[in-house]
Sequence to fold (465 residues):
Amino acid sequence: MRRFLLPLILLGLFIGESIFVQLTPPELFGSGKIAVPRFLIASLLFLTIYGSKKHGVIYGLLFGLLFDIVYIEIIGIYLFLFPIIAYIMTKLMKILQTNIAMASIIVLLGVALLEAGAYQMNFLIHRTDMDFAAFLSSRLVPTLILNLIFIILAAYPFKRLFEKYADSLNE
Amino acid sequence: MPQFFLNKRLIILLVSIIILVALIGFSLKDRENLTWPEQFLKDTTGFVQNAVSRPVNYVAVFFENVQDLQNTYKENKELKTRLDELARLESEVQRLKKDNTELREILDKQDSLSEFEPKQATVIGRNPDRWHELLIINKGKNAGIEPNMAVITSKGLIGKVKSSNTFTSTVQLLSSMDPTNRISAKIQAGENNFFGLIEGYDKEKGLLLLKRIPYDAKVEKGQNVITSGLGGVFPESLPIGKVVDVVPDEFGLTQTAYIEPGADFYDIGHVMVVKRGALQPELMEMIDEKEEEL
Fold:
């Protein structure tokens, strides 16, 4: 049972993101503002920080692929972004201390990186013609606010969970 | 120099970027169907999504109903005033329908472009990153859904089927930016119809762009826009929206109209996938071989 807990939570967040978008009103932060739930990457980054680094990157790879196939139908965008952001986080954590406030800020930074990376990729393949200034004000800021709320709510439970997970791996 | 190639991480990064570009190129290619591992994954997750989204939807609908109850009195008043008008309209529609079938019989013309067969489906997922506006619905190939079918709600056209798997399908909304997503539409202006193509969506204004309207067409505000059925895929006269504004295009050769979509692209619970009654022309049939030989 223990073994399946982590994949189940991640899968729940994976599906939860889509349900969240379906049920919340589109103009949560005012008209023209788009807030994207990035709960999955937030939990993956908590996993890399508190749990196992290797597992963080591997789950990033798996769920990135799943995200691409199921939601976007363009394979490669999140398959690339999820693991590379998790990897950058492992490098960052080496030079920073792991208290919970620091970890939360770093996770938020990861979300911002992901959003900016996804924007760049979609811009390159002509799926959006938004300029960078518009992207900052209409997407990045609302997304960060939404995910900050999620991170504040979930940071402590995730810390407990992933530290236990790391312990069970060491045994 | 040899040290550069010995850096393992750098090599991994370079190789993965090459793979990334190859994968994106492969998936951007105009492909008719997804590969079978993709279809399998989509169906499996679709199964889980179906199981999760159903109870969630029940709860959401319950709260919506409670909200609706609060406005019932006001709405009832308004609806009563419309009811008289409706009765008159209904009798007229009845008469016109009968006329139409009789005239068709006289002409011996059986199929029409506007005939279609709707299939009900429920939305079980939506792409959370809002770059690509895609929906996942719970009907697939085994319910007869195929790529490029039109998708409507009760208020109007919302998009087309992008790909279909055995048990689920993906719907691409009109609001997503895709240069290959074009719909032949017409503006109903009294006696005349003006034809154009729906190409693109203005995200800031929330309006669709109807391009390539003839420069001399007198398009006015508030006129209805419907599908023309001439694209060969969609049936005729599915409602799209209303004209809000008309501007000449950059070269002044054609006009572009801004259309306010009838359907809401966000609050979508149930959709209908529309199968066109009239035959779809095959691309090969449309290319006249004899002409090519000349």
